[in-house]
């Protein structure tokens, strides 16, 4: 019996818009037959398969506008076979340059015929129609072929199907090996968004391409993917050289995906983006996989991917644009001892998800012990960061906190993490933890809770010392343990001088930062510029200290080192300079009497201009605290 013209799962195209037939029959309140179709573009329809309260069919895509009713008499776009599409794309009589990807400039007017065309300083090659036609017509030399959105189908004949199942040989009428004769060198083939219904249609094309390494069949909504045992054996040989497979936007379930992927014995890269997947069952994937993309699906937890841990060679996992908000479901406690472990994974992309706390980030080193490269951007977490005292933090601050929490990550959001960035990030992170602990000092349970939310605290203390102050008896008169982080920081109070303000009547602005002594001056300028909303290189830093600049005072009095005797035990002769000891003593006495008044006038005897450069700030200032005047460079 001849198959009906329309049947469930039939692929159609109306005005280049692809759809699948989901219903054939009458619709209440109307006359005649209707086709209920699900559009590949879910925004094109008018409903979800329901009309006036009656559900006629279900769509694979759950968006409310994925479906429509159309009349069977409506004319649809005719399908093409592979060779027709190939010649249409690459060897038509009048080439379509936009589709072929060739960018050319044609010169036809006489005045410009012999004049080279220059665009952005580069001469553009003039290519004639004959040359283009020749290039496109060399189908036997094509290696990369893009035949997406060309309405290709290739129904499998009974003769071919029987041969795959060992029931006979190929009939010449069923197979002319036209593809192999026309384009035998294809290594990369894109058959995405066509009108294939049966996976065997794709297999019959690949069977004639022995050099094929990469296959993309995204956007094809297959009606049939089941294969007989004989067909699976045959297709495993057909697909044995293919290393890259794309099944994006096919809306296949995980069992069907697994069944197809296992046909590719050498597969290393698999893309399953936009398939509405929300969990992965234990059905396996090829152990040869190194890269897996699950972008744009509906996963909500990382633990739902636990069945992937059996893949021994998986090094890259792409999970961006999902709905991941935690490691485990909300009703299941996340313990690092019970988490799934990906032993070989080094690259993870969890950008553009729903991560809103640091808890999942803290557990990443336990799940991915070899993780060295991470994408974490565009998560809600970075929109609500604050310090322990409630001050808002920026996304850049969040970047530093992520570095500090992940000790083995060497690349974050495509940026290489330098040793300096890691040092500054970890020191700052440790200071924030210490601030949190100081707010709950004396409350053991609260302190335990704070430390529990920062798993690296003990490790960072062991590395950099305890930031908190210890007993004076243990550390000497300074009250600071010389091995602690506090001893490596300088508390800098910055004062933006009044005369440097854009508005003279404004008050002088002051703020305080705790900065590691090894921080470069350029970095300090950047922090100050950010605080004042000014360009760092327009600022000058002046360290003000109350200590007397003895050399400057002596110079003011006309004294130098030669005015004093060497206080050694040698037999050197007594100084016979023109100044007597009495003169020097008189001058120093005058210096002592006059110092107080001049100190009041200058508001600090000693000033040190901190020069721009990579020199550490600790080499400019002394002690654990410093007052810095900020000036605008004129």
From TrEMBL:
Stretches assigned to the CAP-Gly domain: 25-71
Signal peptide residue numbers: none
Keyword Protein transport tagged: no
Superkingdom field: Eukaryota
UniProt KW keywords: Leucine-rich repeat, Repeat
Pfam families: CAP_GLY, LRR_1
PROSITE patterns attached to this UniProt entry: CAP_GLY_2 (PS50245), LRR (PS51450)
Name of the featured protein: RNI-like protein
Organism lineage: Eukaryota, Fungi, Dikarya, Ascomycota, Pezizomycotina
